[in-house]
Amino acid sequence: MTALFALATSLLWGLADFGGGLLTRRMPALTVVVVSQAVAAAVLGAVVIATGGWSEAGPQLWFAVAAGVVGPVAMLCFYNALALGPMGVVSPLGSLGVAVPVSVGLLLGERPGLPQFAGVGIAVVGVVLAGGPQLRGAPVQRRAVLLTLVAAFGFGSVMSLISEASTTVTGLFLALFVQRLTNFVVGGAAMYASVRRGVPALPEEGGAAAVLAALPALALIGLADVAANGTYSVAAQHGPVTVAAVLASLYPVVTALAARGVLKERLRGVQAAGAGLALVGTVLLATG
Description:
Layout: H1 2-24, H2 29-51, H3 61-84, H4 87-94, H5 99-107, H6 114-131, H7 139-162, H8 169-196, H9 207-213, H10 215-237, H11 241-248, H12 251-263, H13 269-287
Helix pairs in contact: 1-3, 1-10, 1-11, 1-12, 2-3, 2-8, 2-10, 3-4, 3-7, 3-8, 4-7, 4-12, 4-13, 5-7, 6-13, 8-10, 10-11, 11-13
């Protein structure tokens, strides 16, 4: 069961990342985040009411609120990075967020093994190589790498926080609802501030009609992201967390394959090698 749910997590996260990056090339990243999270919050609200999840409310939900504050920042950075591309490089670097839960474990008294030390070194090399020659004289690519690393730290923080927000299935629904509702509030506030500064919230081509036309895709992105959080929690609760983390961290492979199949992306050899090393480092960090 652990392997099945963890692999489902990889599939869902990978497709959500691909869809989010694709839509961000046509409309502002904030719009993608806010609309997709609004749909997810609405659906989760209905699920909480249907399952009686409100009975699980308690102080632990502050972890979900914290995750909801960090999440939009991470998603905004990540979607912007995916829009800059190439997705086959950005997505594997985003999976380095698993280093955050590992660091939390260290603070709680755990001691890293040799695989984790090796994972740190390999991951750093992967980050450098993934930028490839484009890091020199190409600010856009350097910005994509930096945005991805910020997003990775945010994603790892969300994983650590949301794992503390619930211990039961109905509690998980409530925690995810609180997280997504906070995502929407924080993202909406950021969008309001952005519009006040003169930055348009709607696509230049099509405006509100374009957003409405993309609503099914935006809904799928938000729901896939929520479902991935849920399947990962189930996987971690029914088996070794290290196994769940390793299998769930393979989602960049899904994104890279989707980008290659749909967008016909071709990576330079050094970039492909860097992306591969980043994935190896991620696996070592999770299994050490």
